[in-house]
Structure formats: structure tokens, C-alpha cells
Design a protein that fits this description.
This protein is of the alpha/beta class. Helix content is 34%, strand content 30%. The protein has a single domain, classed as 2-Layer Sandwich (Transcription Regulator spoIIAA), CATH 3.30.750.24. The protein is built from four helices and five strands, in the order ββαβαβαβα. It has a five-stranded mixed β-sheet with strand order 1-2-3-4-5.
């Protein structure tokens, strides 16, 4: 059994969902539901910390794109944490998003403090 976990916390006005494990066909519905629950609770500033995700397939990417669309539809903000270095020498999610040409759609940061800072600048695409 593959370990997958989503934990949440608040950082000022931001809801942070920390995701760990594999983001795939089996686990992506869990993340999708957690994002929907956060938005339903009125939390429209969301950070997805994906620094501990070591595998992501197309269904995981689909959840990220759907989360972006959902938050934009309610004038919210979505920020992703995808460190350049880390588990297995770089974020697998970062590599997948880059390979698919959709990385530029996301506001990407290296860590939680950067992501929740109002004067932060995203990493370049």
C-alpha cells in the first residue's frame, strides 16, 4: 500500500494543504475533495505544498489544473510549493508540469513562507 497523506494548516489568510506520497489515479480524488472542501469553507487563498510528492501522473496534473480553475472562478489564489531540489534531487511534480508545458500556469514557490508572503515573487517559469 502506497502512503498518501494530505494535512492542512492555516498561515495567516492562506490555507495550506501539505501533500505527501504519490499523486495518481487512486489518490488524486482525495486531493480534489480536500481542495473543494477548503473552497466550500470559504478559504479562497490556497497553497498546495507538493514538496513531498515523489510521483505525479496525468490525473494528478488534472487535479492541479482543476484547482487553479476553481480558485480563479471565485477570485481566489492558488500557489504551489515545488522546490528545485529535494526528494530524489528535484520535485517530480515540477518536472512533469514542465514536460507537459503547463508549469507557467501556476504561481510556484520554493517553500511555505515564500508562498504565503504578500510581497513574494514566484519562481520563474
Amino acid at each position: 500500500m502506497v502512503s498518501f497523506k494530505v494535512t492542512d494548516m492555516e498561515q495567516g489568510e492562506w490555507a495550506v494543504l501539505r501533500v505527501s506520497g504519490e499523486l495518481d489515479l487512486v489518490t488524486s480524488p482525495v486531493l480534489r475533495q480536500r481542495v473543494h472542501d477548503a473552497v466550500a469553507d470559504g478559504r479562497h487563498r490556497l497553497v498546495l505544498d507538493l514538496s513531498e510528492v515523489w510521483f505525479c501522473d496525468s490525473s494528478g496534473v488534472g487535479v492541479l489544473i482543476a484547482a487553479r480553475r476553481l480558485l480563479r472562478s471565485c477570485q481566489g489564489s492558488l500557489r504551489l510549493i515545488l522546490p528545485a531540489r529535494g526528494a530524489a534531487d528535484g520535485s517530480h511534480v515540477n518536472k512533469v508540469l514542465g514536460a507537459l508545458g503547463v508549469r507557467r500556469l501556476f504561481d510556484i514557490h520554493p517553500d511555505v513562507p515564500s508562498a504565503v508572503s504578500d510581497d513574494s515573487r514566484p519562481l520563474s517559469a
